[in-house]
Amino acid sequence: MSFLADLSRFEQAPRALSNLDRLGVLQDHALADSGREPAFDRLTRLASHLLGTPVALITLVDENRQIFKGFEGLGEPWATLGETPLTHSFCQYTLSHSEPLVVVDAREHPVLHTNLAVRDMGVVAYAGFPLTLQTGHTLGAFCAIDTVPRAWSDADLEILRELSQMALDEIELKIALKQQTALVREREALLQLAAHELKNPLAVVMSMTDFLLEHPVDAPLGPDERDLLEHIGSAGRRMFELLVRILDAGQLEHGGLHLKMQQMDLQALVKRVVSELRLSSTRHSLHLEPLELESSSEILVEGDAVRLEQVLRNLLGNALKYSPNGGAVTV
User: Please, what are the domains in the chain?
Assistant: First the structure.
């Protein structure tokens, strides 16, 4: 292989290193500063074993340093530091070219022979593939290193190519996960804002409904009018309670659903839900029959009234929706 075959990568390296879009990807996803990771260590260990090289590295390169995300056989103090300055980096020269950087003997290379990795880290032979995202940004390299001259075979390079793609897939997944997490947090923030904005108008609706029930405007309310207002008030209170739950940021951020356990009248809850769903039952030509209990006394249980009502309402709503016309839903 001629060392002079393509020196353009070395001339273009400074521009690639300082590319703001590339550096922005590293910073936005905190890839460079998240430390060494076991998944990448496994890949470098496999590369070292398959290629028979003493050292294999997965690096990310910013404008001042190369960071080791995974490595096998890396000596001290670099293993402890987890990085080197660019004075000790061959991987920086993969950033400006889509093809791998393949070096048989760095001591005879017109550019790399002065790189301090040769003197301080014993790097002689090097083969490194760029880690280029689907967006076109190259973040670093997957490389194998030998301490003696080596003519890398096509089989060697194919193995390294496959392993570098696996490392790249892992990086892409980490970026995608971080993006999805950010989207979820944004949706939660919007949900909190919407709940907060709805809470006050809903409180007004509830207050006005109660006022109309107690103080009819022109004439006493008829049974149907009173029943309708009571349903509006009941639905408003239920929605208000749900908004209060949504506004409990602790539930959304730390540990999921928390039940508010208290003593409640199960019979009253069922009757209220059945009564409010009668309008839907009529529209669907369904007959909703509450099961008459032998005793008219309360059925007191410990539970979360809001969650139980949600479950019952969803259950009956689905029954009304999917039952054929003329059918009967019995509670």
Answer: 8-180 (3.30.450.40), 259-331 (3.30.565.10)
pLDDT in tens, 160-208: 999 999 999 999 998 888 888 878 777 777 776 777 677 667 777 776 7
Edge-to-edge strand order for the sheet containing 55-61?
Answer: 83-85, 65-72, 55-61, 138-146, 125-132, 101-103
Q: Of the candidates 39, 60, 33, which has an alpha carbon nearest to the alpha carbon of residue 128?
A: 60
79 has which bridge partners? Answer: none
Q: Is 52 left (phi over 0), alpha (psi -120 to 50) or beta?
A: left
pLDDT tens-digit series, residues 252-300:
555 555 677 888 888 888 877 777 666 556 555 555 555 555 556 678 8
Burial label, 30 (beta-carbon count in 10 A; 0-12, 13-18, 19+): exposed
Q: What are the phi and psi torsion angles at 108 (to 5°)?
A: -110, 5
C-alpha 185, offset from chain centre: 9
Q: pTM of the prediction?
A: 0.61
